[in-house]
Write a structure and sequence with these properties.
By secondary structure, the protein is α+β, with helices and mostly antiparallel strands. The chain contains five helices and three strands. β2 and β3 form a beta hairpin.
Length: about 110
């Protein structure tokens, strides 16, 4: 029996460029492990390790269909990343609103002067 690990943090999973490329490939649709491996110059076991990390993070699922194993994106796995990005998107939007106010106030003050 294998060792059960805690879920891998999604941010750790996407930190690696190879895993980000795998996610980009899977955005086009479900792919077999062999098909995913064909896009890289690393060994199939190395690609399988990357896929395992993505699966443990909940970003992909691997489904057996006959003799093939298909990988596909899992929307729920991206929620943590999406929420984190949304916070900073709102943060920067607020900063832009504040900057616009300052610019308008300065322009108005120049007009009066």
């Amino acid at each position: 029996m294998g060792v059960k690990y805690d879920k891998i943090d999604a941010f750790i999973a996407i930190a690696d460029p190879t895993r980000r490329k795998i996610l980009s490939l899977l955005a086009a649709g479900s792919m077999t492990i062999t098909a995913v491996s064909g896009h890289f110059e690393i060994s199939r076991p190395a690609v399988s390790k990357h896929l395992s990390v993505l699966q443990e993070a909940g970003l992909i699922s691997v489904v057996e269909q006959g003799r093939e194993r298909y990988c596909q994106l899992e929307q729920d796995g991206f929620e943590e990343i999406s929420d984190w990005l949304a916070f900073y998107e709102q943060f920067w939007q607020q900063k832009l609103v504040e900057l616009e106010k300052v610019v308008r106030q300065r322009a108005a003050a120049k007009k009066r002067a």
